Amino acid sequence: MDHSSSALTEPFMEQLKTLSTSWSLPVAAIVAAIASLIATMGLFSTKNHMPVEGRTVLLTGASEGMGRSAAIQLSQKGANVIIVSRNVGRLEEALADVRAAAKNPSTQRFTYISADVSEHDYAATVIAEAIAWNGGKSPDIVWCVAGMSTPMLWTDDDSVAAARRNMDVNYFGSAEMSRAILREWLAPENSTGPRGEPKHLVFTASMLALFAIIGYGPYTPTKWALRGLADTLAMEVNYYPDNPVKVHIVYPGTIVSPGYERENKTKPDITVELEKDEPAESPDTVARRAIAGLEAGKYFVDVSFLGRLMQTGIMGGSPRNNWVLDTIMGWFIPIIYFFVLRGMNSTIVKWAREKGHPFTQPKKK
Ligand SMILES: NC(=O)C1=CN([C@@H]2O[C@H](COP(=O)(O)OP(=O)(O)OC[C@H]3O[C@@H](n4cnc5c(N)ncnc54)[C@H](OP(=O)(O)O)[C@@H]3O)[C@@H](O)[C@H]2O)C=CC1
Ligand SMILES: CCCCCCCCCCCCCCCC(=O)[C@@H](N)CO
User: Where are the transmembrane segments (predicted)?
Assistant: First the structure.
């Protein structure tokens, strides 16, 4: 016979148990969350999460603009550097600057590979060449920088052709490279165990992948696509615990680069008007901030204050840089966007009223 419970006490005990679990679970969760936050925040650590000295870095799109600046700065930090783009003359000039910046000129090595990132299967060939040059070892860090932009209105004649071209260079150029290098890094014969120095795969998006504005229809979706791929791969690399790889994605604002000069030739004036709130920066500055973010171990690499705010506003299921700050800041961003969007849309309507129907406005060519 069971004496331990009576008809009276049992429901009470059940209630008490439910009550205590309904409290203890959230409390335990909050305590665990705070503890793991403190552990992962890295607030007190100044560890360099991406040492490059003596390691080999491959960058696409590094003959001009931010990629070139990044290659030079990584050379200053002691990296061996491989730069990839199409034009050989510009590659040679850039490589001379990269070489001249070397920290240890007698031991660091440098080379370039000419390739068009928009060509199907280009990356497997580039990686094979890079490995042969690097004494049979794959590069330790791959940074996809190559990109282009042809801003125009979506109703313009050439917008869909431009969109396909932008997608081939910006998205598939990085997608193919990431696949080629991951097939090396993640291969069983290249396992280092979970404590091995991680490899780094870096994508270059744009602030427009966080907040889209009028006139970048052919371009912005390519950078959103990169964000989707980067989030996917940030999770997928965890499937290979013995082959540690860190994925990162950089979100630059306006970079005063040769590419920026080119895109401004066709950029609608209304786009120029709305993007003027994000201060334009030199390629050196953007590269320096991006590398600092990579060294700090960030997944989402912001290079400006607005970019930092925008990131927190769209994070969804992306890995966080700092769960506490990102969550608290995330509560405020919708309030900012309420005013920003109203302001931008009223500027657009005002311009249409002042300058006439967009089809009848003079076209930039
Ligand atoms: N400029 C800006 O305002 C912003 C730029 N970004 C992004 O940052 C990155 C760097 O931009 P930015 O500094 O302006 O770069 P630039 O446009 O100045 O330079 C582009 C580089 O990529 C190479 N490249 C272009 N197309 C190809 C191709 N099909 N195959 C191989 N290489 C190619 C170019 O060399 P070559 O022509 O010889 O091939 C060059 O080295 C890009 O991904 C860009 O989309 C993001 C936000 C803002
Ligand atoms: C909290 C949020 C505040 C929102 C303020 C909005 C300001 C809009 C700035 C848009 C800047 C776009 C820079 C990237 C440009 C680029 O990628 C191209 N130049 C490349 O072609």
Answer: 23-45, 201-219, 323-341
